[in-house]
Amino acid sequence: MAIDDKGGAREAWTAIAGLAPLLVFSNSLSSGLVLGVAFLVVHSTAAALSLLLPLRFGPARVLGISLFGAAVAASLSATVLRLIDPFLFETAYSRLFLTVCTVPVLRACLLPESVAERERSIENILRGLGYSVVVILAGAVREFLAAGSISVNSASGPASASLLPIAAQPAGAFILIGLAAAAFKAAMAAAKGSER
Amino acid sequence: MSNGRKFDSSLWIVIAGLGVAAILAGFASAYSSGQSAFFLSRLVDTTIGPISRRSAWTTLREGAVLGRAVPKKGEAAYLVSLRLPDGEYRAIAEVDGDGSVLRVHALGGTNSLARTRRLGALFARSGKSGAGQDSTPLDASLEPIVGDALETITRLERQRTEGEDGDRR
After folding, report:
1. Of A27, A129, A147, A179, which sits most exposed with the smallest number of CB within 10 A?
2. Residue B110 near chain A (CB below 8 Å)
């Protein structure tokens, strides 16, 4: 990403803000993994459908078909999770369907407007991978800040010193998003300053 | 304009494909539901023991109660997941016919935070065999969660036993 490319950076932050519902629910590594992987499946399905469907279907039909496909993908993700860990499914199943309503997935469902944009659609699928990594990392960081340790196992381990319990609560997610945005802006400003 | 509104064959193929995918997703969901019921009833049976309980599982999802395992002989047990904004605590509560909690079997929490652990301790002593009267500053915010869960268990068990009595008549 070019340093002076303000539009690109803003677009990336808009997309991450659109992930806020998932970032709020991702308060541990296990929930982050569940939401991140489900998001990747749903986003990839939506992006692939909007890319593969013929242009003659028109934007409205492509949006409808891609959204339906994304919902089926979310259902399959929930099914797989239920087979792997029924407890985790009971905790997360309603949140899995939230992935369909996030801004990045809705954007992926839109028909690419030009041929150039269509050729760049593979980037959209890769972007989904980046967003899912953000969701997983948010879960890991919040669990570490809250409990002082990270574990994939959803059952509790020995008592550990809690550093910042609020990090695991919804308010903690918004505080972390704000801090990350401020740090990113400061880093961009510092990089610009060093270029001059 | 009218050409754009015409349905071409490829659109029908896509719609049919999505329909098939939705039906397959439905079957897969039903299968996973059965597997999940088997897993949870087995979990309750092995935790309470003996394994020969062979209880039948019913998913309820009412408040903190995830479901109920009813053996052919013996007391019913409720699988409870007490949720907090930053985690949850899971336990199995054995109940008698009028819905009073007899024993609590802890399954653990999703994290080791003090609030989750305290919630587990409060729920564990809600059973008739539970002991301990210690209190902490966290209790005021956690006791309503435990109280709600116990009320839900009592209501569900009374509904079940009343339903069984009605069937016998």
Report:
1. A179
2. yes
Q: State yes or no: pLDDT of A160 exceeds 70.
A: no
> Domain residue spans in chain A?
6-195
pLDDT at A82: 94
Mutate to test the interface with B, among A57, A63, A79, A162 (most CBs of B within 10 A): A79
Minimal CA separation from B167 to chain A, in Å: 31
Q: Do B28 and A76 touch (CB under 8 A)?
A: yes
Please judge whether A72 and B25 are an interchain contact, meaning their C-beta atoms are less than 8 angstroms apart: yes
pLDDT in tens, A36-53: 999 999 999 999 998 888
> Which residues in chain A are contacts of B33 at CB distance < 8 A?
82
3-state SS record for B6-71: CCCHHHHHHHHHHHHHHHHHHHHHHHHHHHHHHHHHHHHHHHHCCHHHCCEEEEEEECCEEEEEEC
Q: Say yes or no for a CB contact (<8 Å) between A53 and B14.
A: yes
Greatest distance between any 2 Cα atoms in chain B: 77
DSSP B169: -
Give the minimum alpha-carbon distance from A146 to chain B in angstroms, rounded to a whole number.
8
User: Is residue B18 over pLDDT 50?
Assistant: yes
With 0.90 as the threshold, say if the pTM is over it: no
Helix (H) or strand (E) holding A60: helix A59-84
B81-90 tens-digit pLDDT = 988 877 788 9
Sequence spans of domains, chain B? 48-168
